[in-house]
Amino acid sequence: MAKAKEDFSIKQTKPNISSKNTTGLKRTHDLIEQMQFMFVKILKAKDLAGPDGPDTYNPYVEIILGNYKGTTKFFEKKSSPEWNQVFAFKRERIQTNTLEIVVSNKLVEVSDEMIGKVKFNISDVPTSAPPDSALAPQWYRLEDKNGVKLGAGEVMLSVWMGTQADEAFSVAWILDAAEDAGIGIYKGTLGNLVLRSRNSLSKNVDPMWNEDMMFVAAEPFEEPLVLSVEDKLNPNKEESVSLGRVVIPLQDKMKRKDNAAASAMWYNLERPEVAGENKEQKEVKFASRINARISLDGGYHVLDEATNYSSDLRPTSEKQKPGIGTLVLGILNATGLAVMKTKEKRTDAYCVAKYGSKWVTTRTILDSLTPQWNEQFEWDVYDLCTVLTIGVFDNGHLQAGDMAGKGYHQRIGKVRIRLSTLESNRIYSYSYPLVVLQPSGVKKMGEIQLSVKFSCASFIDTLQNYMQPLLPKMHYLNPLSVYQLDSLRHQAAFITSLRLSRAEPPLKKEVVDYMLDVGSNMWSIRRAKANYDRILELLSGILALIKWFEQIRIWKSNVATLAFHFLFLVALRFPGMILPTIFLTLFLVGVLRSIKRPRHPPHLDTKLSHVDTTNEEELDEEFDPLPSKKTGEVLKRRYDRLRGIAGRMQVVLGDMATQGERVQSLLSWRDPRATIIFLCFCFVACLVTYIAPFRLLIFVSVAYVLRHPRFRVGFPSVVQNFLRRLPARTDSMF
Questions:
Q1: Can you list the positions of beta strands (E) in 439-473?
Q2: What is the pLDDT of residues 441-459, one digit of tens each?
Q3: Which CATH class is domain 325-516?
């Protein structure tokens, strides 16, 4: 039985969200479905005196609600601890009538002992909804296990029912999920990155390089710059010996915002020498000096993501300029997720969203193929030509056994939303397919429901944004080479990954690499075919126009050809109407196409990407890292195939070069007879075009091209014959 074809299209949804604000107050969670939570805020306790007196307990608090349990941190030897922690329980999962707040004493060698507890009836818990203020906490006297109030010992807390709009939600521990809730995470610092200059051409004691080397650095510039001059011992090997080095702090270096030249300075190189035969002591001796210009350039923007999916294009020195609008993202839920942990038969899903330098993560929903997050995030927008990226992952930290906290975070899928495709102040609620390309082929991992809204502060500023340069001005005043851009991108991606791995909560390297599309510039036959088809589609309009004109020229339809003659005569009689007619036609076509304009943001197109027609051999090559892990016959086969593709490209490039060189040879006298013929033609054409009216020349030329088929022969034209006989530089090539 044939396998049903998977549906990779996006679908418009109608989530239960309230997009209209009738209260007159600013709403902060209007793109997500409201979820009811019971919040428990534990502030502090007092008078927790043990049998041996005050400050003898190691107190902590347990919040027990049926099978759910939350625990605060504990304090050593403290009778008046302060926790100030918030816990939240999904109301729909509450299956008990009693909430217990238990204050316990943490012991080392024996089980912890209960100091006292407080009980609440769930039905008596009050409800608080914005814009109401948060419920004021109260002191509660602790009770023993029999319900008798203790003589001393109180705990201050508050309990209430609320939603995600509650201000406590952002700091609460959701007790039916693993807490990976993220706030803003920003880029990293200068890492241990090494760049090497080319060898000096002057083989003497005064070498010169005149070479720019660029690193990615970030405030507060704690990492110094180390310059080392080395003598390469063997031209064919990497072995070298240090001639001297200097460590340069970056905090006081010149910070450039424009193309002003940095001042050059001499730096003393120091060389470590080994003193004595025992090689136990080292002393630093003066070696030489090096002249260098060092500056911190803030006028560039370093792309840590693929250029086509950039989310921030501002220069690093202008991060505080006002934005043109606000982007709000609501991550609602996912459905039909695949089982990611096959041994445990579970999926612990969470989402990561990135726009600009701000990364956010949702909480992890445990053991659910239909997780509900209903979390909302907001960004300032500075450029509409940017992309919001949302990724869904399986939390590998939650694996059992030896892999606990060390597991690989598997990708479930990714969604990209280009802001320029969004209408202002409109809420887009869609279910996006989560599609992953694997070595075995493309696979749908589920669907995620998102709500997105872009609000512009000023329509005029938004329109002016289209007239501004895409990149900062330094990219045009002092352009970077392709090699520099590629090197800086890899540095920035590495530093971002390193920084986020140390953040709280940490993001694994595989998560950051997937969000930044690291490795997207690797060779792929599938992508090459897709880009080839894209070029053909772009050229299809021109080819269709040429084909239409050829049909007019050969009089395939007498009516169409006569109509073209009439329009041509009108244009020849009224040449001033040509451009207005062209622009009016474009205007009318645009207006008519607005009726069928796209109503939803674009998404991954499996047909365009050729993922549904590729084979496992091509995918295996695409996923093979650099350097390759393959050996033997596999590499030979791929190399031969690549040579075949490159050979065909080489022929096409050679043909293009040949045609261009033939045109150049018209005046090169490489073929003297052909040059004489061309010069005679130019002299006669000069006289004819000077004497004859311009409109007459146009009329005769077009009439000749459109002459009736009975007046033409089926051979190439004189011009084609002449050009094909001209010489090219192919005669000089091996």
A1: 441-456
A2: 888 999 999 999 999 878 8
A3: mainly beta
